[in-house]
Amino acid sequence: MGDIDLLNDLSVKNIVAGDALGNVLQGIKGDDLLLGLKGNDRILGFKNDDLINGGVGNDKAEGLSGNDIIAGMLGNDTLDGGKGNDVLVGGEGKNTLDGGRGKDLFVLQTKGKNLIRDFSTRDDKLAVLGNIAFDDLKLSQQGANTLISLGNGVLATLTGVNVGQITDKVFTFLG
Fold it and tell me: Among the CATH numbers 2.60.40.10, 2.150.10.10, 2.60.34.10, 2.60.40.1120, which is that of 14-134+167-174?
């Protein structure tokens, strides 16, 4: 994954949307736009490149295969990219992110707290939204995990990653 071109090659063939209730949504044939809207939803992509937006609620979203963009938005979400080079945006809340196989981009926001379960300094990248620079972040070790903090808040916990492996090269900053 080079520079961040989130929507560069995205094409939408099908739109599947939920409602105010908790829904189970599944992609149709790939290249789907899946919208959870309100409620605690379970959202499954299909194949190819899907765009998944959980919306409001505590959602569980899986891209399955393809190069997916998965956004939890509001709530405490669980996002799983599956196979492919995925972009995962936890959003606000306490989120659990797993990119799966591939070169993944994990997008961090100042209002969210993300547990990233499979970060690889060799393959994956972290993007930070807001007017923030690398020097604004505090990196620390907590047991076997790396904490990435801004001010008094933790933006992300990288499980099983040694703080010594994290340099400015794994970050992209989006002001």
Answer: 2.150.10.10
